[in-house]
Amino acid sequence: MKKLKNEKELVKKAIALGVEYGEKRGVVEFEATDSANDKLEYIYRLFVHDGVIQPLPEEQVSQKAIQHRLAMWASRQ
Known about the structure:
The protein contains three helices and no strands. By secondary structure, it is an all-alpha fold. Helices cover 61% and strands 0% of the residues. It is globular, with a radius of gyration of 12 Å. The chain has one domain (7-25, 34-75): Uncharacterised protein PF16691 family (Four Helix Bundle (Hemerythrin (Met), subunit A), Up-down Bundle).
């Protein structure tokens, strides 16, 4: 897994786009007190369920891997 040059900014962009996607779809309402890790995991699971991104093998799912996968997705948006 090669780290992206601006991965932190892309993760923030992925969170913003993912929150908008989930709320527009009507499946979630995020609170201000929700942690970034909770949001990332929910967005990842939602995107996998909807077929927006390919799932990671279950034994490889971690916060770091989820962040990287969503950053890669955000870089193409």
